Amino acid sequence: MVKMLSRLGALRPHIFDVLLGALAFALSAAMLFGYDLADDGVLRVLMLPHAKITEAYYHITMPYQNGVGYVAIGGDFIISPACMGVRFIVMLFCMVVCFFTMRFRGKDKLVFFSLSLVGSVIIGILASCVRIISSVPLVLSGQFVALHAGTGVVIYLLTLVGVYVLINRCLNNRATGGSYEKQ
To answer: What does pTM read for this prediction?
Structure first.
């Protein structure tokens, strides 16, 4: 009986981690559901960073067209709601929360959880912008859909791995007092 109680006591700190993971999945589901139901006014604002970064990079103008997205003058390409990368943002957020929240204690868990959400949105938007910018030259190829999808897979995978490695390295550095020496 004492051993069983001891094991339950050891599990208690992990219950908060499981609850934060469940909260991350609930927020993710709400984000996906809300994005699917968003009207043109909301989509126009959410996709604005993608359009502005693409406009600045290619020196073009992209007005918003209701029901379509941001359309390049001349109609060569469109930044549609699917280009936002909301599924990638959700995946990144869930990965960071599930892999790293357990390394924090007390209020630091909540701070890290909040920073994970904000950071995932920012990094997700930047990764989606890189995907869009790198795909524009492929528009005139006969295989744009496949090339655009492949480009997205590579960029998103590199971003996931990069974020994981960066956070892991920072947290390991923090745990060792700032030393990167091999042990």
So the answer is: 0.83
